[in-house]
Amino acid sequence: ALVDLPAPANISVWWNFGSLLGLCLVTQIATGLFLAMHYTSDIATAFTSVAHICRDVNYGWLIRSIHANGASFFFICIYLHIGRGLYYGSYLYKETWTIGVVLLLLVMMTAFVGYVLPWGQ
């Protein structure tokens, strides 16, 4: 049974956010792929394609909402994950912390690119 598995004594609720990040990432990739199937990247029609997704595609409004709110939840989990790392002194492991900072910057850049896709209209 799951209850019988050994666990460290210092484990707490704060250790869940890494797993939640993985779940959010899978959700973002899945919804992003569905949105990309109907998105047009031309400057003149980008916003129109987003409106088409929300109005004409079956459950397109739901997929877009899950994708948009999932991005916010992803960043909430990232900041809580970083906060846990700061609290427990994970920054002392230089390589791991540096990789985490690089990943944070990559995620921020990716989020910015995703935010500007409809060309702000």
TrEMBL record:
Instruction: Give membrane topology per the record.
Output: Multi-pass membrane protein
Q: Which Pfam families match?
A: Cytochrome_B
Subcellular localization, per the record?
Answer: Mitochondrion inner membrane
Which PROSITE patterns has this protein been placed in?
CYTB_NTER (PS51002)
- Gene Ontology MF terms in the entry: metal ion binding; oxidoreductase activity; quinol-cytochrome-c reductase activity
Q: Name the UniProt key words of this record, in alphabetical order.
A: Electron transport, Heme, Iron, Membrane, Metal-binding, Mitochondrion, Mitochondrion inner membrane, Respiratory chain, Transmembrane, Transmembrane helix, Transport, Ubiquinone
Report the SUPFAM superfamilies cross-referenced here: Transmembrane di-heme cytochromes
- Answer whether the UniProt record assigns the keyword Manganese to this protein: no
Concerning InterPro entries, the annotation shows: Cyt_b/b6_N (IPR005797), Cytb/b6-like_sf (IPR027387), Cytochrome_b_N_euk/bac (IPR048259), Di-haem_cyt_TM (IPR016174)
Q: What is its main location?
A: mitochondrion
User: Where are the bilayer-spanning segments?
Assistant: 20-40, 61-82, 97-117
Start and end of every Cytochrome b/b6 N-terminal region profile domain? Answer: 1-121
Tell me the Gene3D superfamilies matching this sequence: Cytochrome Bc1 Complex, Chain C
The yes or no answer to whether the keyword Electron transport is present is yes
User: For this chain's UniProt record, which GO biological process terms are given?
Assistant: mitochondrial electron transport, ubiquinol to cytochrome c
Gene Ontology CC terms: mitochondrial inner membrane
Q: What does this protein do?
A: Component of the ubiquinol-cytochrome c reductase complex (complex III or cytochrome b-c1 complex) that is part of the mitochondrial respiratory chain. The b-c1 complex mediates electron transfer from ubiquinol to cytochrome c. Contributes to the generation of a proton gradient across the mitochondrial membrane that is then used for ATP synthesis.
Q: What is this protein called?
A: Cytochrome b
Taxonomic classification: Eukaryota, Metazoa, Chordata, Craniata, Vertebrata
